[in-house]
Write a sequence for this structure.
């Protein structure tokens, strides 16, 4: 399948869950919030409860509550509303398979390793016995999904999403929610390779470029690529944020929106930090170092609103061609780097005490090969090695 068809499938597979009617309502809601400067939490809570009392419940209204400022406000409300947003029947959740089935899955050992490294995702000060019990539940939750769908492949970062649902709704409901999401919002991350995940990352520069051409040009000139945002995307920001309250607020937003919304949020974050980025030295290592960490004090509600605006202004279908061009450019640069490195290692003897510096003509599609490029490549490789659980083709 061609890259064109692959990227088109990403933007069309799920349909436009952010339908025009809901988008209009959301836009009106944002304008109202801008006028009032802040929303009334008590009033919103009452409106949510009134909606939940309806039979049948108006799911469209629940989506708007999830998207609008403050999200779903409280974990007790999330326990009730998340299943409704995903059309999950919490009264008919399949029973857990036997231990021998869960432990016999091809990914079991990798899942256990990752879960054992996920201590920071549990609330600080939690009793060790409770935490160990939750880690066991987390392993079982993940394995239930994988056993249920043999076509799905585990990836490092998936456990960061699963633990969030576990902490909010408990194992059984978390399994049902993640099971549904794994076939929809998360599906492209769960292939045997990362081709479709990389295609999604190719939307970042087109979105940024539409809003700030200067910033896109600077980032492309720095050769920073998109790997800095990979963990944001595949963990729904669960791995890079410390505050569980902020993480679940993002989950409200993502569950209620189009599956590509996390990449729009990534673009919103990059655009918000434009001044910092443009003030940075235009070298890969410096720009990557700046972007690879998300400040914990960003105005996240504003960024959610910005991401929604970006989606409305530049829907995925309108960006598909630009994403393809970005993909082709990335492939061209990768081939040039590989060819360059092969030539370097074949024809040059490396003095262990020194680094050679090469400058190639950018007009011919070559990239600078410097000490900093090598250093950043090593750092990027470490990031990739941490995130991957399979021998994906990069």
């Amino acid at each position: 399948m061609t890259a064109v068809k692959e990227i088109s499938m990403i933007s069309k597979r799920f349909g436009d869950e952010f339908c025009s009617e809901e988008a209009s309502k959301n836009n009106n809601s944002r304008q109202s919030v801008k006028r009032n400067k802040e929303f009334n939490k008590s009033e919103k809570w009452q409106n949510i409860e009134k909606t939940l009392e309806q039979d049948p419940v108006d799911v469209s209204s629940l989506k708007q509550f999830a998207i609008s400022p403050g999200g779903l406000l409280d974990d007790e409300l999330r326990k009730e509303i998340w299943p409704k947003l995903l059309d999950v029947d919490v009264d008919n959740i399949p029973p857990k398979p036997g231990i021998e089935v869960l432990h016999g899955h091809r990914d079991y050992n990798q899942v256990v390793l990752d879960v054992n490294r996920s201590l920071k995702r549990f609330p600080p000060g939690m009793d060790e016995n409770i935490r160990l019990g939750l880690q066991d539940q987390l392993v079982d939750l993940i394995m239930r999904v994988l056993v249920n769908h043999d076509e799905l492949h585990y990836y490092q970062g998936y456990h960061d999403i699963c633990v969030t649902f576990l902490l909010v709704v408990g194992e059984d409901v978390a399994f049902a929610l993640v099971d549904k999401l794994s076939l929809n919002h998360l599906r492209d991350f769960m292939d045997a390779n990362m081709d479709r995940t990389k295609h999604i990352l190719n939307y970042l520069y087109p979105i940024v470029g539409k809003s700030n051409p200067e910033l896109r040009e600077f980032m492309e000139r720095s050769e920073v690529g998109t790997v800095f945002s990979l963990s944001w995307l595949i963990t729904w920001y669960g791995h890079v944020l410390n505050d569980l309250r902020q993480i679940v607020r993002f989950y409200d937003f993502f569950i209620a929106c189009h599956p590509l919304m996390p990449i729009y949020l990534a673009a919103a974050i990059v655009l918000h930090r434009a001044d910092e980025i443009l003030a940075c030295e235009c070298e890969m290592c410096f720009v990557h170092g700046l972007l690879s960490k998300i400040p914990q004090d960003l105005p996240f509600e504003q960024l959610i609103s910005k991401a929604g605006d970006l989606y409305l202004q530049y829907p995925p279908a309108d960006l598909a061609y630009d994403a393809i061009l970005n993909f082709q450019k990335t492939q061209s640069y990768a081939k040039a780097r590989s060819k360059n490195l092969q030539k370097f290692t074949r024809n040059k003897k490396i003095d262990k005490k020194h680094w050679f510096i090469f400058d190639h003509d950018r007009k011919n599609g070559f990239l600078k090969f410097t000490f900093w490029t090598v250093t950043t490549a090593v750092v990027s490789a470490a990031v990739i090695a941490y995130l991957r659980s399979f021998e994906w083709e990069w």
Summary: Confidence is low (pLDDT under 50) at residues 1-26, 28-37, 349-394.
